[in-house]
Amino acid sequence: MAKFTVSINEAWCKGCGLCIAICPKKVLEFNERVKSEPVRMDDCIGCHQCENICPDLAVTVKEAKLDA
C-alpha cells in the first residue's frame, strides 16, 4: 500500500519533465498528453523532490491516509 500520494494538476503541468528526471524511485512518467503522471505510487518514498523542483507548482506529495 502506498505511504504517499503524488498528484499532478494537469492544468498547471507544462510537461517539462523535471519531476520525472529528479525522482529517485521513477514514480512519474509522461502520459499520452505529455503531462507527468504517477505510475508507481507504491514506490514513492515521500522525498518531495518532484514537488520542490516543479516550476509551476503542479506537483503535490502528501502522506497517504491509511484505513484503520
Please, could you describe this protein's structure?
It is a single chain. By secondary structure, this protein is an alpha+beta fold. The chain has a single domain (4-63), classed as Alpha-Beta Plaits, CATH 3.30.70. The protein contains 2 helices and 4 strands; from the N terminus they run βαββαβ. The chain has helices spanning 18-22, 49-53, and strands spanning 4-8, 28-30, 36-38, 59-63. The chain has a two-stranded antiparallel sheet with strand order 1-4. Strand 2 (28-30) and strand 3 (36-38) form a beta hairpin. The longest helix has 5 residues, at 18-22. The protein is globular, with a radius of gyration of 11 Å. The mean pLDDT is 94. This is 4Fe-4S ferredoxin-type domain-containing protein. Pfam families: Fer4_7. Residues 4-33, 35-64 form the 4Fe-4S ferredoxin-type domain. InterPro entries: 4Fe4S_Fe-S-bd (IPR017896), 4Fe4S_Fe_S_CS (IPR017900), Fe-S_Ferredoxin (IPR050572).
Q: Biggest β-sheet: count, sense, barrel?
A: 2 strands, antiparallel
Unreliable sequence segments:
none
Total E-strand runs: 4
CATH fold type: Alpha-Beta Plaits
Determine the mean pLDDT: 94
- Structural class, by secondary structure, is alpha+beta
Percent strand: 15-25%
| H/E series | EHEEHE
Distance between the termini: 13 Å
Keywords: 4Fe-4S, Iron, Iron-sulfur, Metal-binding
Pfam families: Fer4_7
Protein name: 4Fe-4S ferredoxin-type domain-containing protein
Organism: Acetomicrobium mobile (strain ATCC BAA-54 / DSM 13181 / JCM 12221 / NGA) (Anaerobaculum mobile)
